[in-house]
Write a structure and sequence with these properties.
325 residues, alpha/beta, Alpha-Beta Plaits, 6-stranded mixed sheet, 4-stranded antiparallel sheet, 12 helices, 40% helix, elongated, binds adenosine-5'-triphosphate, cell membrane, ATP-binding, DrrA, nucleotide-binding
């Protein structure tokens, strides 16, 4: 089977509000699929539907050949879940946590011990397997949760913000494990993340906004098709004024992100000297960079993925700029 997940015209309404608004996509066997979107875009709603935790308003979702509404038990046996909140019992050891999960998922007793050993080995926790989980670091707990999610040999592992709240070193280590799982087990990994550097590791990415999928491609293709040229980031003494000037004089659409303007231009290295010469007193800082997934996100949604951290003033200015366009 080529596609492990198929979603067709999926709609989920809360009362009249369409949290998921007619989305269709498929996920291939053995790929890392990133599901990205700003807050409230509809990511959790979609994931909950795929995990059989939420009913569908209309449309269809099939996972591992099983319809999520008609065959929820078969779907549950096909998936592993690692959600944002830690869900281990920290008064138990790693082995005891795994054992209870194995019982819950009806993993046959004769293979359970061997599986527990094998998943602990995968996340390199073998030598700590008899320690109480409360003695674990945040990264170790997350690794144990991943191991637990694999115990019943799922076809798809759902990871909702797998590295949130972890330090950069631990994030890197968790990603090594995720990539290893894909490469060694051919597992499909369906994940959400707010970290764009991590999203680079995905084989394909779907961007969802206001309940609709607005882009779906490989990270490289998204950059070329969405952003294209170089991106310039600029801080002026008056960002609103400069955005207007960029539009009127150069035909460029700038977006305000944090306290900087960001816009795309074909040949940034020749444009910068022209701009600085035209506004010598006004440009406070300027930089040029090749497209990143942050730029893709910004170009597609008009918002940075970390929009929620903008100050109220910035948010107001950004809305004003968007209205003007
Ligand atoms: N139980 C509910 N009742 C009513 N509205 C809801 C409910 N759950 C979610 N929503 C709304 O549906 C929309 C999509 O929510 P969802 O949680 O799927 O977004 P999300 O992309 O996962 O956001 P986040 O990144 O903040 O987790 C939001 O506008 C949210 O307020």
């Amino acid at each position: 089977m080529d596609n492990i997940i198929t979603v067709e015209h999926l709609v989920k309404r809360y009362n009249d509000f369409p949290a998921v608004d007619d989305i269709s996509f498929s996920v291939k066997n053995g790929e890392i699929f990133g599901f990205l979107g700003p807050n409230g875009a509809g990511k959790s709603t979609t994931i909950k539907i795929l995990c059989t935790l939420l009913s569908i308003t209309s449309g269809r979702a099939v996972l591992n050949g099983f319809d999520v509404e008609k065959d929820p038990l078969k779907v549950r046996q096909s998936i592993g879940l690692v959600f944002q909140d830690f869900s281990l019992d920290d008064r138990l050891t790693a082995m005891e946590n795994l054992y209870f999960h194995g019982m819950l998922y009806n993993v046959p007793r004769r293979v359970l011990q061997e599986r527990m050993d094998s998943v602990l080995e995968m996340v390199q926790l073998t030598d700590r397997k008899n320690d109480l989980v409360k003695k674990y670091s945040g990264g170790m707990k997350r690794r144990l949760e991943i191991a637990r999610g694999l115990l019943h040999y799922p076809k798809v592992l759902f990871l909702d913000e797998p590295t949130i709240g972890l330090d950069p070193q631990t994030r890197t280590a968790i990603w090594e494990h995720i990539l290893h799982l894909r490469d060694s087990l051919g597992l499909c990994i369906f994940l959400t993340t707010h970290y764009m550097d991590e999203a680079e590791n995905c084989d394909r990415i779907a961007v969802i906004d206001h309940g609709k999928i607005i882009a779906l491609d490989t990270p490289a293709n998204l950059k070329t098709s969405t952003v294209g040229g170089d991106r310039i980031t600029l801080t002026a003494d008056d960002n609103g004024f400069m955005a207007e000037e960029l539009k009127n004089r150069f035909g460029l659409e700038a977006v305000l992100q944090d306290d900087r303007l960001s816009f795309q231009v074909d040949q940034g290295d020749s444009f910068i000297p022209r701009l600085v010469a035209a506004y010598p007193e006004r440009v406070k800082a300027i930089s040029l960079h090749e497209p990143t997934l942050d730029d893709v996100f910004l170009a597609l949604t008009g918002r940075g993925i970390r929009d929620e951290f903008l100050s109220d003033g910035d948010r107001f200015r950004q809305r004003r700029l968007r209205r003007r366009r």
